[in-house]
Amino acid sequence: MDLTSWVILPFLLGSVGIYGLLKLLQRLRSSAYIQDAVVVITGATSGLGKECAKVFYEAGAQVVLCGRNEEGLKDVIKQLCLIRGGAMKFHKPHMVIFDLSDVEAVASAAREILHLVGKVDILINNAGVSYRGAIVDTKLSVDRTIMDTNYFGPVALTKALLPSMIQKKGGHIVVISSVQGKISIPFRSAYSASKHATQAFFDCLRAEMVPHDIAVTVISPGYIQTNLSLNAVTEDGSRYGVMDKTTAEGRTPEEVAQIVLRAVGERSKDVLVAGPLPTLAVYLRVLAPKLFFSLMAARAKKERKFKDS
Ligand SMILES: NC(=O)c1ccc[n+]([C@@H]2O[C@H](COP(=O)([O-])OP(=O)(O)OC[C@H]3O[C@@H](n4cnc5c(N)ncnc54)[C@H](OP(=O)(O)O)[C@@H]3O)[C@@H](O)[C@H]2O)c1
Ligand SMILES: *[C@@H]1O[C@H](CO)[C@@H](O)[C@H](O)[C@H]1NC(C)=O
């Protein structure tokens, strides 16, 4: 070996060692952050919310699961109680039943949560409903329904829990938005609008909460293999009931739940969980809007042809 190897090699090895050590410390810090934390998850009966319930429970959090469907929640809790963790001590899961689109119900649910577990460390606003339809054919009541569930629901729940977080001088608000909170694609108007509004609200909250040591994480996934498209609302308010190919070919909810767990542990601010094409689209919207708009116009034309045939 010449002199340069004698200098470079230890330097490289040292750097790798320090990097590994920092990563390990970060992992330990993340798991300490989640272990024993009270984590409230909305939409915990299915899809991503159900998987988040599992990963946070397994990480030692005290989970409070929310949804409208009591049977569904009981089922998830039953599944959690079957998990065995060796030396890990699990907290008994709780459930709170309410409809997020009913502001009064949200306020009383927040009181119920605080009564049940005393405090909330991490709130994961995950519940949501999708939409399919052309703007001209869509009743205004549908736009309102989507906004009530996807926007006013999380906003109301966050506002109801915020004073208790400020009082205990810390907390964490997480929201599951969507790639469609960053770009708007045709025939998803109400959904995309609700997610854009969500992004804006929680970006604002993040800045305002800095003095209170309350973190805000916005997560924007692309397609996930859940029942979201089946449960989507259409132009007249009826259920869409179709499993879209894009949804069926998306990421698994297990994979996305792991990403949520990591983002929360690291207190990330804004996380886009998407492949190269949607990521490119997000950048195009900002850097080359004309190109983005013509791509969307072409997409609308193609989808309309498909609908008319
Ligand atoms: N799947 C995707 O491709 C995708 C992509 C990007 C973002 N996301 C977002 O991920 C989140 C989770 O959706 P998912 O994909 O897991 O869909 P999902 O399987 O349809 O789950 C939606 C959850 O939201 C709950 N919910 C819906 N309306 C509600 C209401 N009015 N009050 C209370 N709870 C309500 C449902 O609970 P109950 O019906 O049991 O009450 C259910 O647990 C949503 O915010 C969605 O926008 C999904
Ligand atoms: C979709 O809904 C069906 C029927 O309600 C349920 O059995 C299944 O677990 C749901 N899928 C997901 C990914 O939540």
TrEMBL record:
Gene3D superfamilies: NAD(P)-binding Rossmann-like Domain. GO terms for molecular function: oxidoreductase activity, acting on the CH-OH group of donors, NAD or NADP as acceptor. The keyword Transmembrane applies. Keywords: Membrane, NAD, NADP, Oxidoreductase, Transmembrane, Transmembrane helix. Residues 37-227 form the Ketoreductase domain. The chain crosses the membrane at residues 6-25. One of its GO terms (biological process) is lipid metabolic process. InterPro entries: KR_dom, NAD(P)-bd_dom_sf, Sc_DH/Rdtase_CS, SDR_fam. Pfam families: adh_short. One of its GO terms (cellular component) is cytoplasm. This is Dehydrogenase/reductase SDR family member 7B. Belongs to the short-chain dehydrogenases/reductases (SDR) family. Putative oxidoreductase. It comes from the Eukaryota. SMART domains: PKS_KR.
